[in-house]
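Hi R.,

As promised on Friday, here is the backbone we talked about, encoded as structure tokens. Could you run it through your design pipeline when you get a chance and send me back a sequence?
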């Protein structure tokens, strides 16, 4: 038996937590996506975290909406000619296996060594639908990631980058530096991110964020500028979709919560808001 006090041990455990929600969604007859690998990847620990972390199992609609929006934005970018997908802090994402992808597409996943090793073990024998490569790297290693970005830049002409569930663990200064490092290569055409307002960040820090902070995975990034934060650092918001707005579209939003549409010109401030943004290189 896993002990409740050991719910989240490190930042890598959050990937198992996210996989749990994909597994739950895949069980529904009206699922917005199907991930046949999610339950295996989440494992016993993923289910334990979701059901013992404060409010860990409360906002399933938000996790599902986030996955759906990343899928939607990514599919459109591939349709528009992206020839390389770079998933930074890929966690236990199974998109190269579950999405309808061209066989000629190249896909690179980057994450911490322990996540890469675990994923290789769990998906051993499974066949991705495109060319897939995994790279073990701590993305807080500035020199290491710059070297990686330079190498990836040489591999393709139109690159789409995903950072799902990553930026919230960085400070604003670290996110700005990260954005500039990506913008240094003109082949990095688009970047799909999730973003949280300062108001939502405070709510998250008071609930599940407290235990995550103890595990070295503190929530830090919720810019008051909203998507405009990225403009001085080489990226322009092209499309912005709120999680609550998306959940309401599919009758998944909690009762009593009304969605607010946020475009790239509105700063959410202390209003609780979380969404997914498509950025284009300036």
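Update: got your reply. Pasting your designed sequence below so it's all in one thread:
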């Amino acid at each position: 038996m896993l002990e409740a006090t050991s719910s989240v041990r490190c930042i890598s455990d959050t990937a198992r937590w996210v996989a749990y929600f994909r597994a739950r969604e895949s069980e529904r007859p009206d699922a917005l996506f199907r991930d046949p690998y999610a339950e295996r990847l989440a494992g016993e620990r993923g289910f334990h975290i979701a059901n013992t972390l404060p409010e860990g199992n409360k906002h399933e609609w938000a996790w599902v909406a986030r996955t759906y929006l990343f899928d939607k934005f990514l599919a459109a970018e591939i349709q528009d000619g992206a020839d390389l997908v770079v998933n930074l802090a890929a966690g236990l994402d199974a998109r190269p296996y579950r999405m309808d992808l061209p066989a000629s597409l190249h896909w690179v996943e980057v994450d911490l060594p322990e996540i890469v090793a675990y994923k290789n073990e769990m998906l051993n024998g499974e066949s991705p639908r495109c060319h897939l490569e995994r790279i073990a790297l701590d993305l807080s290693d500035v020199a290491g990631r710059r070297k990686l970005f330079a190498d990836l830049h040489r591999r393709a002409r139109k690159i789409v980058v995903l950072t799902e569930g990553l930026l919230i663990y960085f400070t604003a200064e670290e996110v700005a530096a990260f954005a500039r490092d990506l913008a240094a290569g003109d082949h990095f055409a688009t970047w799909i991110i999730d973003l949280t307002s300062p108001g939502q960040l405070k709510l998250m820090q008071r609930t599940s964020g407290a235990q995550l902070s103890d595990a070295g995975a503190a929530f830090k990034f919720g810019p008051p500028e909203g998507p405009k934060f990225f403009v001085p650092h080489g990226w322009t918001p092209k499309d912005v979709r709120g999680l609550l707005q998306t959940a309401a579209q599919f009758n998944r939003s909690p009762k009593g919560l009304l969605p607010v549409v946020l475009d790239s010109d509105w700063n959410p401030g202390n209003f609780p808001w979380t969404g997914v943004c498509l950025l284009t290189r300036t």
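One thing I noticed while checking it: The CA atoms of residues 197 and 268 lie 6 Å apart.

Thanks again,
M.
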